[in-house]
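pls ignore typos typing on phone
2-acetamido-2-deoxy-beta-D-glucopyranose + seq
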Amino acid sequence: MLHHLLLTIAILLLLTFACAEKHPSAKCQALKKTLQLENTTILDVAYVAAPTNVSTAGSCQSSASVTAAPLCRVYFVINTTATSAVHAEAWLPDTWYGRFLGLGNGALNGCIDYVDLDYGTSLHFAAVGSDNGHDGASGLPFLNHPEVINDYAFRAIHVEAVVGKQIVEAYYGMPAARSYFLGCSSGGRQGTQEALKFPDDFDGIVAGSPATDLNNVLGWEAMLSHYVGETSPDSNTTAETSPKFITPELWSVVSAEILRQCDALDGVKDGIITEPDACNFRPEAIQCTDGETTGCLSPVQVEAVKNIYSPLYGLDGQLVYPRLSPGAEADPLASFIFGGTFFTFTADWERYAVLNVTEHDFTNFGLQDIALFNEVNPGGSATYDGNLSAFRDRGGKFLTYHGQRDPLISSTNSKRVYDLISHTLSLPLLDDFYRLFLIPGMGHCFGGLGPTSFGQGITTGTNAVNDSAHNILLALVDWVENGVAPATIIGSADGDGNLTERTHCRYPMRSVFNGTAFVCDE
Ligand SMILES: *[C@@H]1O[C@H](CO)[C@@H](O)[C@H](O)[C@H]1NC(C)=O
Ligand SMILES: *[C@@H]1O[C@H](CO)[C@@H](O)[C@H](O)[C@H]1NC(C)=O
Ligand SMILES: *[C@@H]1O[C@H](CO)[C@@H](O)[C@H](O)[C@H]1NC(C)=O
Ligand SMILES: *[C@@H]1O[C@H](CO)[C@@H](O)[C@H](O)[C@H]1NC(C)=O
Ligand SMILES: *[C@@H]1O[C@H](CO)[C@@H](O)[C@H](O)[C@H]1NC(C)=O
Ligand SMILES: *[C@@H]1O[C@H](CO)[C@@H](O)[C@H](O)[C@H]1NC(C)=O
Ligand SMILES: *[C@@H]1O[C@H](CO)[C@@H](O)[C@H](O)[C@H]1NC(C)=O
Ligand SMILES: *[C@@H]1O[C@H](CO)[C@@H](O)[C@H](O)[C@H]1NC(C)=O
Ligand SMILES: *[C@@H]1O[C@H](CO)[C@@H](O)[C@H](O)[C@H]1NC(C)=O
Ligand SMILES: [Ca+2]
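k done
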């Protein structure tokens, strides 16, 4: 009773104190004049009083709804050097749970992630997203701007964290108690780079489908497009000119054959190949026989397909990158690689960050180009290093996930990275600070087949259930703040009316069908 009374008095005092404070909208507006941060200019401040839709000018045309309003939006720019700058937004919700959230980017961009700003603030984080040091999706800003490349390679997220936390502290009058990072794809690489280079920036990191070993993944993606005859990022003439090209119709034949050979390996014929690394697909099974010309592969197409589903080895015989996962070709994003043009991000990388030219002929793209990428390693962007000891020693927690039907970044690479860390640190299992969840059926970062929503953000609709068993960001919070590490992540199906779930396993456990459900097995 006395306890209750004291609590009531405490709450009343708090409320009184809160009322004596300026209204959040006044506090928000005041930031424009009062914030004085080194190398940083506050460009705009806006208090968003009620849920609304927002968008931004510039080449990204980012837009999102603000569902967590009321909140304060702060738009700012950080000069990182005399020739580079990072533009960023901080979204500061009135209802704040004392947590900071740094956000990542995708591909080579250049675009503040509004969807994740909204997602993070909806869970009451103070969230900050940046443009990664340049505007837009093209790699052109890298050309002859090594400091812009440095922002992309390692610095943008670091200054986003450092300056972002200062803004959060100035606004709320107290520092964030904990700081987190959320990103996928390029964002997954950024989170990994943070853990390697700036281990103090974040207490916890969610790094999805990471583009680690960046020079090699870009080289591999281009090789895949090259195998089917693609030579130019600017035109789409491959379909007419190359006998190696595989039309969307023929890809459907390939996918159907892959499922015929491998879908049932996991015990359930459901279109999902639970372990694509166990699928030894033989394209010869659909090679054209005498007189056959449609619905089958010519000998050169068989050769192309065999290359696509084989690991890539370099000039020195070392593995460059694991193979494409059988099944991943059916994901819609596979058209970025097999749609008729040379893989555009690699073309940008080679021209603008490696060769420093505006024009280049990709007809003879090959292993020598990938070797050059690694030699130049623009800005130290490779992000392939197993030494996470500093992050581990400061108590950092790292969660990563990878869709096993990802057509852009092979999930096998995330196993390779796990094994690299394990080997480097001489730890048989990384469970005490690093956990990798493999997601059968999921494409790149989200979507695909089966229950693939588990709070990873990136797009709306991936936060089907709000609790730490189903939401990887809340699982990370639980791990950092309560010491409760996620043994599994339960995925939910994306809004098709019926909520289906599947338990996703942490590597090196395997997802095994026990007759009624998939369970995680040592
Ligand atoms: C940032 O750089 C711009 C352009 O060089 C300059 O005008 C501005 O004053 C700089 N801002 C700060 C805070 O250093
Ligand atoms: C935001 O835009 C979407 C789609 O255009 C619309 O359905 C929604 O009602 C809008 N929300 C608000 C708060 O204006
Ligand atoms: C401000 O920028 C300069 C380089 O332009 C850098 O040396 C300095 O460390 C920066 N300060 C902060 C707080 O980042
Ligand atoms: C999850 O939902 C509950 C109530 O439905 C809410 O109280 C809680 O704040 C939510 N969690 C987060 C982190 O937003
Ligand atoms: C290129 O051509 C193929 C085959 O005609 C077509 O399916 C694809 O959509 C085209 N891709 C682009 C980027 O225009
Ligand atoms: C291109 O410029 C970078 C510095 O940004 C340099 O490291 C690289 O060697 C240059 N590439 C060539 C082919 O000269
Ligand atoms: C890892 O990095 C730490 C510094 O953070 C260093 O002391 C240690 O020797 C490195 N370990 C290995 C295996 O390279
Ligand atoms: C949802 O479940 C009901 C009952 O099992 C079924 O009839 C319906 O087809 C399902 N809807 C979808 C979209 O799967
Ligand atoms: C299979 O796993 C599910 C979920 O853990 C469990 O409920 C069921 O009893 C198991 N079935 C068998 C045959 O072990
Ligand atoms: Ca299956």
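The first strand starts at residue 40 and ends at 48. The chain has 15 helices and 17 strands. more later
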